[in-house]
Every structure is written in structure tokens, then in C-alpha cells.
Backbone:
């Protein structure tokens, strides 16, 4: 087909598995450049051509996820991420890609040493689930494992993407992720004491979405970590915890309300007008929801 020829020659394909790392790197860079050119003018590049080209390259690129050269690993991830939105049906690539990502960042010990590559891998995972939510059902255990381990990554940017991934899983595989939710929630909770407030807020959003997917024990285990954030030094965190308490009061069985009410009402006595205002607004909203 024209599409794969425009992007990759047989020689490029051979070069991707060449014993010389510079040869592999040059072949990858050539594909990245060709992709960039084609993406500028979509007229000469149909979704079925993109599909065909990625089908040709996919297994070679996944092998390169464990290349000895960091640059080759990074480029291989970049190429799949660039292809994904251009394809007819990215779903056919999700399961194998997610399993390859898990090998690198989803098990203990985490094999990927480069924080940039770890970030690229967890971001690719988020992108694939966003593009093909139905494919997530094929690899729930892998996705949950990647999310859990990425929450524990030392790199704050990876922690943030992992928290976003937790939110996404709560929407796409709500039932299927139930058995894994306790482990993922525990990993998210470990970021509630991170020194950057943005990381704490992201973890809180992740828990806000995922705790209702788990059983009652997950809620009970997470409650002390969440309640503590009423006293957080960052007002963004104190405000976020009110939103989470309010959303749980609406989404979860009424038995949780007595435990959550003190967390929500704590906002009434906050030092900041904005936090007090948020509290009043949320109490009002819940009151209206109950009345309806």
C-alpha cells in the first residue's frame, strides 16, 4: 500500500533490528521525521494507510521498548504515540502495547531507568485508553498495575499522569477494575503527602474517582488520609477535598454521609473566603440533590 511505502521502506524495517545502535536510532529518527511531514498534510495520508504502516512496524517498535539505548526506547514510544490518533482502529494495538508498557514500568522492580521514558510510557497508556476505551477491558490488570506503579514513581510528572489514568479507568472499566482498586488507591494515597501541592491535588482527584469503584473497605481505609487534607497548607488541596467529599456523598451509598459530613463542613471555618464559599456552595448543591 502507498501509505506504508511513503513512511517506511524495507531498508528502514531492517535497520530497526540492526545490531548497531546508531543504525537503529537513525532509522527511528527517519520515521519520526516522515510522520511529522505527513501529519502536516493529512491529504496524502489516510487513516487506513496509517493503520497499515503501524501494523508493519508495531511488533518491531514494541521490541525497541527494551532497547539498550535510551534514545531508541524513547523514539519507539514517540512513534506509537504519534501514530495512534492517525489510525483507523487503534484498538487492535492496545493490548500488546499495554503489555509491553507493563513489562517496562508496571511490575516490581521497575525496569525502565529513564524518568523521561517512564513518563512517555505512562502517557502513551493514558492516550491509548482515551482513544479506544473499549480496548481497556482486554487488559484491565495490566492497566491497573501500570497505574499503581506509576503513582509510586519518584518523578512528579509521572505521578500526575498516573492519577489522571486512575480517573480514566474509573470511567472506562469501572466494574472490571474493582478487584484492583484497593492497590491503586493505596498507591494514590501515598502521594497525598507529596511536597508539591499539584501532585497532592492530582492524587486526590484520582481517589475521588476510584474510591466509589471499590468496596466499603477501600472507602474506610482511605478516609483518614483524605480527612487530614482539611488542614493542608495549600488552599487548592483544602478546596479539592471538599469537592471529593461532596461527590462521594452524592455517588456512594448513604452510609458514608455521616463520615463525610465533618470533612465537608470543616470548610465553613477555613481561613480563606474562597474555601468557605466553595463549602457553602457544595452544601447547598447536596441539599438540592437530596430534596430532588
Residues:
Amino acid at each position: 500500500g502507498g501509505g506504508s511505502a511513503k513512511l517506511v521502506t524495507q531498508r528502514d524495517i531492517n535497520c530497526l533490528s540492526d545490531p548497531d545502535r546508531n543504525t537503529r536510532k537513525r532509522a527511528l529518527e527517519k520515521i519520526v521525521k516522515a510522520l511529522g511531514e505527513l501529519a502536516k498534510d493529512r491529504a496524502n495520508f489516510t487513516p487506513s494507510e496509517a493503520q497499515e504502516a503501524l501494523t508493519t512496524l508495531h511488533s518491531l517498535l514494541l521490541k525497541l521498548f527494551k532497547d539498550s539505548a535510551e534514545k531508541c526506547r524513547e523514539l519507539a514510544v514517540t512513534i506509537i504515540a504519534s501514530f495512534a490518533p492517525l489510525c483507523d482502529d487503534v484498538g487492535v494495538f492496545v493490548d500488546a502495547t499495554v503489555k509491553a508498557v507493563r513489562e517496562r514500568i508496571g511490575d516490581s522492580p521497575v525496569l525502565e531507568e529513564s524518568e523521561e521514558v517512564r513518563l512517555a510510557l505512562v502517557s502513551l497508556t493514558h492516550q491509548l485508553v482515551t482513544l479506544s476505551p473499549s480496548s481497556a477491558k482486554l487488559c484491565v490488570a495490566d492497566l491497573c498495575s501500570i497505574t499503581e506503579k506509576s503513582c509510586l514513581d519518584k518523578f512528579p510528572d509521572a505521578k500526575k499522569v498516573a492519577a489522571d489514568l486512575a480517573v480514566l479507568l474509573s470511567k472506562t472499566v469501572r466494574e472490571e477494575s474493582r478487584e484492583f482498586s484497593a492497590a491503586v488507591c493505596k498507591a494514590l494515597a501515598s502521594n497525598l503527602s507529596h511536597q508539591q501541592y499539584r501532585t497532592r491535588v492530582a492524587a486526590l482527584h484520582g481517589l475521588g474517582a476510584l474510591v466509589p469503584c471499590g468496596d466499603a473497605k477501600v472507602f474506610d481505609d482511605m478516609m483518614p488520609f483524605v480527612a487530614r487534607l482539611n488542614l493542608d497548607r495549600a488552599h487548592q488541596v483544602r478546596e479539592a477535598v471538599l469537592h471529593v467529599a461532596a461527590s462521594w456523598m452524592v455517588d456512594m451509598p448513604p452510609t458514608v454521609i455521616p463520615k463525610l459530613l465533618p470533612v465537608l463542613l470543616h470548610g465553613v471555618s477555613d481561613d480563606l473566603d474562597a474555601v468557605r464559599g466553595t463549602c457553602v456552595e457544595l452544601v447547598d448543591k447536596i441539599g438540592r440533590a437530596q430534596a430532588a
About this structure: Residues 21-40 form the longest helix (20 residues). The radius of gyration is 22 Å.
